[in-house]
C-alpha cells in the first residue's frame, strides 16, 4: 500500500507597497521546516519595487509564483486570484500571509500540520503579535489581549453568532480548500460588483466559521504570525477604519450561512 499523500499548504499573499518587508515575509516561508507547500503572491501595482524584490528573492524556486496586477484590485480580489492560481485539492489548506507580515518562526507550518492531521479540523485562526503592541484591554474579557485574537465565547459559537460579535478570527487564518470554495462569490462583492476593498478577513471568515461550526474550527493560542502594524497602509491605521466599518456593517446584515454538510 502506498503512503498517504502529505498535507499540502497553499499560501496566498497580497502585497502592496511593502518593499521594506516583502523579503522578510518570503524568508519566513523559505525557512519553514515543513516542506510540502506552495505560495502565490499577487502584487497590487506597487510602485516601490515590491514585485521586483519578491521575484528576485524566490528566483526559480518552483514552489513560489509572484504575479503582478495591471490595475489596483485591493486585498480581497488579490486573495481570490491567488487562491485560484495556487491550485490544490479539496482537503489541502489555504494559509493567508500578507506581503508586509511574516510567519513567527520556522515551525509554523509544522504546527499547522499537526492540527490538520485531524480530518475534522476545517479551519483555524490565531494567533499573532502586533509588531507594535497596543496597550489595550478587551471590553468583553476585561484584560489585555494579544492583537485581539482569542477563543469565541461559548454563547457566540454555540449560536453561530460570529457576525454579531467583535471580529476576532484574525491571523493566522487557515482553512481547507473545500470550505473556501463553498463561499458564494456574490457574497464577497460590494454593490458595485467589485470585491470589497476592505475587511477581507471578516468578509471571508464569518461565513466559513458559520459553515464549519465549532466542531470543525480551532483557535490556536500561540504566536504563529507577526502582524506588521508599522506599515503606513496597514488596515489597523485610523484612516482605513471608516471603510472597514462600512463593509463590516454590510456583511453583518447578510443572512448567516448554514452549516456545511459533507459526506463521511
UniProtKB/TrEMBL annotation:
Molecular functions (GO terms): transferase activity
InterPro entries, sorted: Glyco_trans_2-like, Glycosyltransf_2, Nucleotide-diphossugar_trans
Pfam families, per database record: Glycos_transf_2 (PF00535)
Domain Glycosyltransferase 2-like: 15-148
Gene3D superfamilies: Spore Coat Polysaccharide Biosynthesis Protein SpsA, Chain A
Entry keywords, A to Z: Transferase
Entries under PANTHER family matching the protein: GLYCOSYLTRANSFERASE (PTHR43685), GLYCOSYLTRANSFERASE TAGX-RELATED (PTHR43685:SF11)
Protein name: Glycosyltransferase family 2 protein
Organism of provenance: Stagnimonas aquatica
